[in-house]
Design brief:
Blueprint lengths: L2 E4 L2 E5 L3 E7 L5 E8 L52 E4 L9 E9 L20 E9 L4 E10 L4 E10 L5 E13 L4 E7 L7 E6 L5 E5 L11 E6 L9 E6 L5 E7 L5 E7 L6 E3 L4 E3 L3 E6 L2 H16 L13 E3 L1 H4 L5 H13 L4 E4 L21 H4 L3 H10 L3 E6 L3 E2 L4 H5 L19 E2 L5 H17 L4 E4 L21 H19 L4 E4 L9 H4 L4 E3 L6 H11 L8 E6 L12 H8 L3 E5 L7 H16 L1 H6 L1 E4 L9 E7 L5 E8 L10 E2 L9 E6 L2 E7 H7 L1 E2 L9 E8 L2
Parallel strand pairs: 21-22, 21-30, 22-23, 23-26, 26-27, 27-28, 28-29, 29-30
Antiparallel strand pairs: 1-2, 2-3, 3-4, 5-10, 6-7, 7-8, 8-9, 9-19, 9-20, 10-17, 10-18, 11-12, 11-14, 13-16, 14-15, 15-20, 16-17, 24-25, 31-32, 32-33, 33-38, 34-37, 35-36, 35-38
Helix pairs in contact: 7-8, 10-11, 11-12
Bound molecules: (2R,3S,4R,5S)-2-(hydroxymethyl)piperidine-3,4,5-triol (DGJ).
(2R,3S,4R,5S)-2-(hydroxymethyl)piperidine-3,4,5-triol (DGJ) binds next to loops.
Length: about 725
C-alpha cells in the first residue's frame, strides 16, 4: 500500500523511500519524514517544542511560547505566518498583505494518478499506476483553499507533487509565489548539486556545501534556460555514484523557475521549487483556481547511479508520450552546420543522396526554408515555404527525399517574429513589447505573445497547413532568445504578472495541438541548443537538441551533466565537421561518432565534403548504431567516471537490463609519454556469467562478470589526441 493514513498521519511509501506528514493539534500539516524506507511510526515524536526567541507564536499558543512555525518542519509554508524561511506560498487574501496561514481541512485518496489539464505531468502506465493523495488546506480565516496533490510511483521511488489554489471568497486574492513543492529536513549534512551553464555550455554539474541563509538558483528568462536547469540534487557529503543518500528534485516546466535551498538557524534544511516568483503575480477572481506545474521528488539510498536510473525509467515510462520512445530514432543529417542559410534544392538533394548512401535515415531541413530568410535577421513568423529557394513545393522536395529512401524533417521556431516579416508588418501588436518602450531584441528578433489565442491560432493554422502539404516525419522546434519584459496588450495592468506563465501555457497549448493531430510526428525540442532542456518539454518532445556546441570533447561534460536527470534517449547529439565550428578543436572522426552515440545519433555536416575513408567510417558508425540501437536507447546507462574529476579519460557504459550485453565507450582527454596502464570497472553485468569482449570489433577474450566488474577491463593506450574506443560485450551461452 503506497499511501497509508492513520490518525491524520499520512505515510507514503515507495520501494526504497518513505515520506510522511502529520496534522498536529494546531491543525498545521507538519512534515515529519523523508528518507530511506521506514514504517508508519508517527515520526513527530522527534519534534521538540521550545521557546526559540524572536519566533512568533500561532494564535492560541502565546502563553507557552513554544509553538512557532518559524522552526517547525512544515509541508507547505506561507509568508506572513511567522515562518521567516523561504515559504512555498505568498497569498494576499484581501488585506493587501500576505497573511495567509494554512490549516488542515480534509483529504482524499484516489486509485489513479491525478492529471493537470494544460500542463505536462506524469501519467499512469499499463505496467504501473500511481495512487493519488490530495490533502486540502484552508486559510485559518478565509475561504481560500490549497489542494496538495501527491502521486506515488512506488517502483521508481518517485513522488510527484502539484498544488491547486482555489479562491472561494467573495473577493479576489493575489498570489505572488506558488511553489510546486516544499520539503523540510531535520538535518543539514547535505550538499547541493545543480547544473549551471551558458549558451553552448549547458548543464555543468556543480556541487557545493549547503549554507545558512541559502542557495537560490533560478531562470527569469521565460524558458528553463541554458544558465540553470530545473533539476537539483540534495546529497549527503559521502554520496558518490554508488553510495550514499541523495534526493533529486525536478520541475516539469519549461518557463522561468526558482529553487531555493536553505539551512535555518536550527540546522534544518528547506527546499522549495516552483515557478519563478521574481515577476509573478496571479490574480485569482472569486470562484477561480490556479494550478502549479508538477514537480517530482526521487530518492536513492545508493548514490547517483540509482537515482538516475529511477529518473530515466520514470521519464520514459510515465512522462514521454510519443510512440517514438519505443521505436528506433532516425539517424539523421541536419542541414544547419552543413549549409546554414546557404542552400538550394540541388544542395539539399546532394546532402540527401550522400545521407542515403552512408546508411542514414532522415534529412532535416533546418532554418532558412520559409519567408525571406537568408540570414537570421528576417522572416520569422512568415511560415510560408520559399519555393524559389527550395526549387518547388515542400511536398515535391519531401517526395524526392523519400524517393531516396529517407524520411524528412523540418525546423520551425513558432514563438518568434522578425520585425522584417510580413507577420510583424500586419500584426505588430502580436509581438511582446511594453507600450512606449523600445523592445529588447535578441538575435534581432522579438517574441510573439503566446498568451493570446489569436497568435496561437495563427501558428496552429500555419503549422497544420505546412504539415499537411508534405510528408514530414520530424519537426525541430526551436526558440532562439529569452523573454525580457513580460507584457501582453490584452491583459490589464494588474494582470501583467501572469504573462510569463501564460506564455508557457500558450506554448504547451500549441504543442498539444500538434501532438494530438500528428501522434506519430517526432518532435525534437531545441532552444538555441539546450536552453529548454526540461521534463516539461519531454512530455511533447521525446528528444531535445542538447547544445549548439557540437565539439565532441565539450559535449563530454555537457552530456555527463544532462545524464543525471534525463534519459540518454532524450539527448540529441550529432557528429559535426572538423575543425569544430564552435571552438575550432580538431578531433578524430571516430571520437566524434562515439560521443554522438551518447544520445540519439546523427550528423550535422556537409557529407559531400568528406573523404572516402571518412565516409567509410560513417557507414561503420551507422551500421553499429543501427545494430545496437536497443542498447543505446533502452540500455541502463552507467557513468563509469566523471569528466570533471578524471583528466585522462571519460568513460560510460550502456548495459542491457537483462545483462546479456553491453557497450563501453572511452574518450581520452589527455596524452602522456611513458603512460600508466588504466583499467575500468564495469557495471550492470551478471557476476556469474561469462562475457566475450571485443575492442573496436576485435575479439579480446572472454571473462567472467565478476572479473569485469571487480578487476575491470584494461584500457588501450591512446595513440593520438582525443583518441576514443568502444568495447562490446556479449554473454557467452
Ligand atoms: C539554433 C539551433 O540550436 C541550431 O541547431 C539551429 O537550428 C539554429 N538555431 C537555426 O537558426
Amino acid at each position: 500500500m503506497a499511501i497509508i493514513v492513520k490518525d491524520l498521519v499520512f505515510t507514503l511509501h515507495t520501494r526504497n523511500s518513505t515520506y510522511q506528514m502529520k496534522v498536529d493539534d494546531q491543525k498545521t500539516l507538519l512534515h515529519t519524514y523523508y528518507g530511506a524506507r521506514a514504517d508508519e511510526t508517527d515520526f513527530s515524536y522527534l519534534v521538540e517544542f521550545l521557546d526559540r526567541g524572536f519566533c512568533g507564536n500561532v494564535p492560541g499558543t502565546e502563553a507557552e511560547r513554544v509553538y512557532s512555525l518559524d522552526y517547525l518542519l512544515q509541508e507547505y509554508s506561507t509568508v506572513g505566518s511567522g515562518d521567516y524561511r523561504a515559504s512555498a506560498l505568498c497569498a494576499e487574501l484581501g488585506s493587501g498583505t500576505c497573511d495567509c496561514r494554512l490549516i488542515f481541512d480534509s483529504y482524499e485518496i484516489r486509485e489513479e494518478k491525478y492529471s493537470l489539464p494544460g500542463l505536462p505531468s506524469m501519467f499512469d502506465s499499463e505496467r504501473e499506476k500511481a495512487r493519488t493523495l490530495e490533502i486540502v488546506l484552508k486559510d485559518a480565516k478565509e475561504a481560500f483553499y490549497v489542494h496538495l496533490l501527491y502521486g506515488v510511483f512506488e517502483e521508481h521511488d518517485l513522488i510527484t507533487r502539484a498544488v491547486r489554489i482555489e479562491n472561494k471568497m467573495d473577493h479576489e486574492a493575489v498570489v505572488s509565489r506558488a511553489m510546486s513543492l516544499g520539503v523540510d529536513f531535520p538535518r543539514n549534512d547535505f550538499e547541493f548539486i545543480h547544473f549551471h551553464g551558458k549558451h553552448m555550455g549547458e548543464r555543468q554539474l556543480e556541487r557545493s556545501p549547503m549554507v545558512h541563509g541559502g542557495i537560490d538558483i533560478r531562470s527569469t528568462r521565460g524558458a528553463s534556460s541554458h544558465q540553470q536547469n530545473p533539476f537539483v540534487i540534495l546529497a549527503e557529503k559521502v554520496t558518490t555514484e554508488r553510495q550514499g543518500q541523495c534526493y533529486g528534485f525536478s520541475l516539469l516546466y519549461s518557463g522561468g523557475f526558482h529553487v531555493r535551498a536553505e539551512v535555518d538557524p536550527f540546522d534544518q534544511t528547506r527546499l522549495v521549487m516552483g515557478i519563478d516568483d521574481e515577476d509573478f503575480r496571479w490574480v485569482l477572481e472569486p470562484g477561480s483556481s490556479f494550478t502549479t506545474p508538477e514537480a517530482i521528488m526521487c530518492f536513492s539510498e545508493s548514490g547517483f547511479e540509482a537515482l538516475s536510473h529511477s529518473l530515466h525509467d520514470a521519464v520514459t515510462e510515465h512522462l514521454i508520450r510519443s510512440p517514438w520512445k519505443k521505436k528506433r530514432r532516425p539517424m539523421l543529417v541536419n542541414s544547419w552546420e552543413a549549409a546554414y542559410f546557404d542552400f538550394n534544392k540541388e544542395k539539399l538533394l546532394t546532402l540527401g543522396k550522400e545521407a542515403a548512401e552512408v546508411g542514414l535515415d532522415m534529412l532535416v531541413l533546418d532554418d532558412g526554408w520559409f519567408g525571406k530568410r537568408d540570414t537570421d535577421t528576417s522572416g520569422l513568423g512568415d511560415w510560408f515555404v520559399n519555393e524559389e529557394k527550395i526549387g518547388g513545393t515542400l511536398g515535391q522536395l519531401s517526395e524526392e527525399i523519400h524517393a531516396m529512401g529517407l524520411s524528412f524533417g523540418l525546423w520551425i521556431e513558432p514563438e518568434m517574429v522578425s520585425e522584417d516579416s510580413d507577420l510583424y508588418r500586419a500584426h505588430p501588436d502580436w509581438a511582446i513589447s511594453v507600450p512606449g518602450r523600445e523592445p529588447i531584441r535578441g538575435r534581432q528578433q522579438l517574441v510573439l505573445d503566446m498568451t493570446r489565442d489569436d497568435v496561437v491560432a495563427y501558428l496552429q493554422e500555419r503549422l497544420v497547413s505546412i504539415m499537411d502539404s508534405a510528408k514530414i516525419e520530424y519537426i525541430k522546434w526551436d526558440m532562439n532568445r529569452s523573454l525580457a519584459a513580460g507584457y501582453s496588450r490584452l491583459l490589464p495592468k494588474e494582470r501583467q504578472g501572469e504573462v510569463r506563465h501564460r506564455f508557457v501555457l500558450g506554448v504547451y497549448r500549441l504543442l498539444e495541438k500538434l501532438v494530438s493531430r500528428y501522434p506519430d510526428l517526432l518532435i525534437e525540442g531545441c532552444c538555441g541548443g539546450g536552453g529548454r532542456y526540461d521534463m516539461g518539454m519531454m512530455h511533447y518532445c521525446p528528444q531535445i537538441w542538447c547544445s549548439d556546441n557540437t565539439d565532441a570533447i565539450e559535449r563530454l561534460r555537457l552530456q555527463y551533466g544532462t545524464s543525471f536527470a534525463y534519459p540518454l534517449s532524450t539527448i540529441s547529439a550529432h557528429v559535426s565537421a572538423c575543425p569544430n565550428h564552435q571552438n575550432g578543436r580538431l578531433t578524430p572522426f571516430k571520437t566524434r561518432g562515439i560521443c554522438a552515440m551518447q544520445g540519439t545519433f546523427g550528423y550535422e555536416l556537409d557529407l559531400s565534403k568528406l573523404e572516402e575513408a571518412e565516409k567509410e567510417q560513417v557507414r561503420e558508425q551507422t551500421d553499429f548504431y543501427k545494430k545496437h540501437f536497443a542498447l543505446f536507447q533502452y540500455g541502463r546507462y552507467y557513468r563509469l567516471n566523471s569528466p570533471l574529476e578524471n583528466r585522462d579519460h571519460t568513460a560510460w557504459e550502456y548495459a542491457d537490463p537483462e545483462k546479456k550485453e553491453a557497450i563501453v565507450s572511452v574518450v581520452f582527454t589527455d596524452l602522456h609519454a611513458n603512460p600508466k596502464i588504466d583499467t575500468l570497472l564495469l557495471r550492470g553485468l551478471d557476476p556469474n556469467r561469462r562475457y566475450k569482449v571485443w575492442l573496436d570489433g576485435e575479439e579480446q577474450g572472454s571473462y567472467t562478470g565478476t572479473a569485469l566488474t571487480r578487476a575491470g577491463i584494461r584500457l588501450p593506450i591512446p595513440k593520438e589526441n582525443y583518441d576514443a574506443y568502444q568495447f562490446y560485450l556479449k554473454e557467452e551461452v
